[in-house]
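Input/output pair, single chain:
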Amino acid sequence: MRVDKALELLPDLEVVAPLRALLVSISRPDERALWSSSGPYLTIGKRGVQPEELTRRMPQAFHQVTEHLQVLYRAYVQALEAQQRGDGGEVVAALLRAGHAEQHVGRPLQARSWYEAAQRA
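Output:
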């Protein structure tokens, strides 16, 4: 199946962004196109993806998403604990860590929300 057709079936929702990234990352040029003169110039949409490969790689994607959420949740709990101790600097540092984690995975709007929370702290 071509990537462009596969992406048409996937709603443009933030919650499935990791699935979209996985789909694009496992796409491969079609064997026939690979050896043609246009092979090296195929756009992502013209590449192929195998649903079986997507299924095989999904546990890895679930693990990455879970790890990311753990980082965010830990940072928030650390901010709460620091606030309870009256350690304003650590509150800000914890919220900034969450923002950096979001920035690292390409979620600038979410990162900004964490940065704004740090600024208010």
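The chain has two domains: 1-49, 58-121. DSSP finds six helices and no strands in the chain.
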